[in-house]
User: Fold these one by one.
Assistant:
Number 1:
Amino acid sequence: MTPNNPTIRMGRIDFTNVWPLFYYFPFESFGDQLEVFQQVPTQLNKAMAEGRIDIGPISSFAYAEHAEDYLLFPHMSVSAFQHVHSLLLFHRKPLAELEGSTIALPTTSATTVNLLKIILAKYYRVNVHYVYEEPNLDTMMNKADAGLLIGDHAIKASWEDRGYLVTDLGAEWTRLTGHWMSFAVCTIRKQVAREQPELVADIYKAFLESKRKSLADLTSLVNDAQRLIGGSREYWHDYFSNLSYEFGPKQWEGLQLYYRYAVELGFLKHEVQLQIWQDNSVAQVTE
């Protein structure tokens, strides 16, 4: 990367829940100033941490692990107040009866895995054994008493009644805490924000415009989701309508509570300050 030919490397998650941020993004207008890499959340989290990606949505937990290196974009997240429909625990027994159970976790997420651990440890006080498996419900339930699926894997599994109890972790978090939960946040590496403020500002504005256009008329997103993944138009309209892509004080408050619990339970090593990017400046969120 040089001042004469600045290039920003963008990460893109291949899950429907982030479609609105990218659907109308004008990639071609940035030319060779922007390189795009499509990956699952855990891969993108790792690439950001290693400096191979400069900007993009990452898991909220990954932000906390490297908060000293990142800034958060305001008005951009994947959040929910109550149901998410794509972060689902499938289980044979009620949550309060999972003591001693084995729970299969996917290898594709950090935020949701730790959200489940927080809920079970903090609110249900059950001790369970966790194993990691590929995100396939049949495989998970052959080896465990419960299986966690996220994203499109969870959506597809939810369309088929296999007799399991199903807990939406977004709804469970809100029921237990009364707060929002932000599962993905959009970040920029601090160094890149300092070195290329104008290009970063232009990318941010393009993200917001894509979000605005996507949510103003869901028809195209719904049609594409139905064509590529299946399901009904009604399902996808409700899905996109139910998620929030905002990231402001209400979302910050819920995320800070999640981080506090993660520190308390030893999932994070230190307290986390939310540092919010502003055009040519940074705002630090204080409680």
Number 2:
Amino acid sequence: MSVKPPAPVRVLIVDDSATMRGLLSAILRRDPAIEVVGEAADAMEARTKIKTLDPDVLTLDIEMPGMNGLDFLDKIMALRPMPVVIVSSMTERGAAATVRALAAGAFECFPKPASLLTIREDTTLAQMVKAAARCPNRGVRTQQRRQIATAAAGGAGLIAIGASTGGVETLLEVIGGFPPNCPPTVIVQHMPALFTASFADRLDRFCPPKVEEARSGTILKPGHVYLAPGGEQHMEIVGTSAPRIRLYAGDTVSGHRPSVDVLFRSVARLGRPAVGILLTGMGQDGAAGLLEMRRAGARTIGQDEATSVVFGMPAAAHAIGAVEQQLPMGRVAGAAMEMAA
């Protein structure tokens, strides 16, 4: 008996540029698992086509005439929640707007391509769209902030976190559940270089601890969270008596720079009490490093499949025995505080 293939992911493209709509459509149509069901030039047209076409996923520009993409995203999430992939130009202003959109409930961000030739072999957007269609929350943002943990975090040790696809909303949930006096926390989130400063600022405004983009030489402090800058440098933690951040240029590790594996391995070498957390993401970055942390005596957590947008990185870690506890997103913050106490 033949098995019926799964239905393709139905996508509506929203962008005020006809050229960009055509380019995005051409990119997505290369994937047989995706069907572009329509295009819209502004929010008004998009609203009509969402009703008539009922797409699985929306790609959404931020800068549009009339109602901008951020305002439209708010209305989508309030009235008709669905997975949304932001397609944004990589500018400082655009980066901040993109992170705001992700925090508001968008699934992921994709930098606008200059031309089809520049991404002929790039399947990232198609992968994002397909992952968005599988998103457990279907693009619905958290309606209420989690109640802030009140357990004392103690002064010993540190927390190291790795995340990739789907990590923006997940980190807002997890760090939002940390108390103001949490252990020093370091994060590698796979994200384009121009987005990390804006995302750190967003986390800082949303979450109880102080959150900042990491700088080389910074000594780790309780109540502070440090996000690795995207781009050309890895982040590691060095120093035993006074652990500090070291940023350095180098080749990609596990396909990334900064790499979660680099961060985790550096924490394992410190020989201090630590908690390692591997969240949603494509690929295997962080799995080997988390195993090194566990073998060095650290406590380890992996996000579970049900709440992961993409169960790649935590699944790889679980498969090699790196995960002590596999937990849903909503329980990660509390478990981390208990382990660090």
Number 3:
Amino acid sequence: MGKVISLNISEKRGTEKTQVSSVNVIEGFGIEGDAHAGNWDRQISILPIEAMSKIPSNKMEEVKNGGFTENITISGILLDDLKIGDVIQVGEAVIKIQHIGKEEYKEHGRPYIVSREGRFGIVIKGGKINIGDFVKTIKSE
């Protein structure tokens, strides 16, 4: 079982996200107050901190010092345990992973790793998520 180590939202796309202590997640929509929420297949973004091991040494400092670009940062779950089609519970919310990474990789800052290893999905069940909440896989494809 993993846990939530950071929650982040932004009002405008293409900007760094601001860390918050809790979020309200809306079924079929995403995180209340986040610019990426809406009726599409990337309502919410998750970065497993374990993905940091995949960053080349020449990019590490840049990524670590970049601002948050993912909604939820988690720890304690292996990357291989977060596949497309998997359903995970994060706090009260339930999320189905639809994508790993983006079609176009970003080359600078934190988007470097999020664009490659971030998990993007849809909200199956809404609810509250707090920093420190548990994360667990409830259905694996």
